[in-house]
């Protein structure tokens, strides 16, 4: 009859139980760093690689092309203001420039549509003199109308570009910084489609309202949103000029 004898192995196996907390800590740190990079990279990339391509200052418009206005005091969203931009709500267009409030104007229509092929935005609703940027783009009341001489200023909300959705008005302008000179902006206003072409991008402080001024040498559309993506530190102005049909 065969006899068996069991001998305890002397091989040293890793102490898995003791390594579990270390593994969890490593995974947590990795996840945290990855999340920080995922959120922070668009801001860093804009500041380092993108903003340098834009104009950072605006020369005063000449008297022949601008509508004179009195000098404006600093708005309540200034850096030294006790009022936080978040507290007043940046989905409220009226909070963007409190010292330059919207004006009620008589227009043939109250809404119109904007399409930007480069950004995959198709017939986004624009409300003239509206206030809720979570429901539509806002045409700032008192600025020019599409197709007319003047400057039609359109505000749109933005978030981190990872959340961009051309159908969601809280993120619709999240990729606006990727637009280039020469790109088209189409405006459907009162039964007529106007084609505008981007010619300049400018980044300004929130207190600077220079590009809200009216100029009447041509027909312009200016698109405005907050930058860097996901912040309210600066304002991006995308200026486009009407492309007139050639005869």
From TrEMBL:
**One Gene Ontology MF term:** hydrolase activity
Entry keyword Transmembrane helix: yes
Report whether Membrane shows up as a keyword of the record. yes
Which residue ranges traverse the bilayer? 20-41
Q: Which Gene3D superfamilies match?
A: Sortase
Top-level taxonomic group:
Bacteria
InterPro entries recorded for this chain?
Sortase, Sortase_dom-sf
> Keyword set for this entry?
Hydrolase, Membrane, Transmembrane, Transmembrane helix
Q: In its UniProt entry, what is this protein called?
A: Sortase
